[in-house]
Write a structure and sequence with these properties.
By secondary structure, the protein is an alpha+beta fold. The protein is built from six helices and 19 strands.
């Protein structure tokens, strides 16, 4: 091998070594940049921080794709009353977890016509940020009017519905469930009833504030797809109809409100399902019912 060849070979080895060194540095930097920040240490720190928050102050996710992992690692985030919430009413103070002080489209939807809450605190816990909000206008929850099921008197045209947990009526069943409504989980009273069913759902001598608020919706995408007929809905207070509405699936998780005088009242929710079945390639199937879901609460919103 000539001297020129040896010099070329030396430079080639040096160049190869340089490329290898640069590649190693880039691999190390990429591993650092793309490392998973959500390790066991991060989740443990978040669980500890959430455990220190007041137990009666709701904690929700502002970064929704964290949901499955977050609820597995932080049990408090799996609480049904927070995950399948009806809205943000009754929450004068709550906490949102995300990457940075974020606000989500779901929280905006659940705010409905409430003004934007005030951010009063924000602190980082590893890669997460816990942001605390206050909204005095959200009011105070006085009583749930649709749960537990054992407190309800439910009847259809044939008389009172019976059972424990799930009430059995001549026209179908009524039970408290977590249902998919407008692509969100909601905790509600589920009515699986036949065509023409008219239900009366009553709480007697129940404590109320200055307003009754609630929602009506329809569960199961496939069932909604095959039945877009409306239901008639009314709220009765002390034997008098306070308001009537007609509700369709196109209205999503539809909110309603009725003003009340604080005190004790007999409150009834009246639901006339009308057409309850579904249409398919073979025609109409009245036995395959669409689930109507509703929830109602008594709130004190004024001073």
């Amino acid at each position: 091998m000539t001297g020129a060849d040896e010099r070329a070979s030396t430079w080639a080895r040096r160049a190869l070594g340089g490329v290898a060194a640069i590649a190693a540095i880039e691999c190390a930097m990429a591993a650092w940049a793309y490392r998973d920040p959500l390790d066991d240490t991060a989740w443990s720190a978040l669980a500890g921080a959430v455990a220190e928050l007041p137990e009666d102050e709701p904690v929700v996710l502002a970064t929704q794709w964290l949901g499955p992992s977050a609820r597995m690692h932080v049990p408090a985030l799996a609480r049904l009353e927070w995950v399948a919430r009806a809205d943000l009413r009754g929450w004068s103070r709550f906490h949102a977890i995300g990457f940075g002080a974020r606000w989500s489209d779901e929280l905006t939807a659940d705010r409905e016509d409430l003004s934007a809450p005030t951010r009063v605190d924000s602190r980082d816990v590893g890669p997460f940020t816990i942001t605390t909000y206050e909204q005095p206008a959200a009011g105070i929850l006085v009583e749930s009017l649709t749960s537990p099921v054992e407190t309800l008197v439910v009847a259809d045209a044939s008389g009172r519905c019976r059972g424990r947990g799930e009430l059995r009526c001549s026209d179908g069943t009524v039970a408290l469930r977590t249902a998919e409504i407008d692509y969100r989980p909601r905790r509600c009273l589920a009515l699986d009833v036949r065509d023409g069913a008219a239900l009366r759902i009553e709480r007697t001598r129940v404590a109320t504030g200055d307003v009754i608020r609630g929602h009506v919706g329809f569960a199961d995408f496939n069932a909604r797809l095959r039945n877009d007929s409306p239901v008639a809905f009314a709220v009765e207070v002390d034997g008098e109809i306070a308001a009537r509405w007609t509700v369709t699936d196109a209205q999503g998780w539809w909110p309603f409100a009725v003003a009340t005088a604080p005190g004790e009242h007999d409150v009834a929710l009246l639901v006339d399902v009308g057409v309850g079945g579904r249409w398919n390639a073979r025609g109409y199937d009245g036995a395959a019912t669409r689930t109507v879901c509703l929830e109602a609460r008594a709130l004190q919103e004024g001073e």
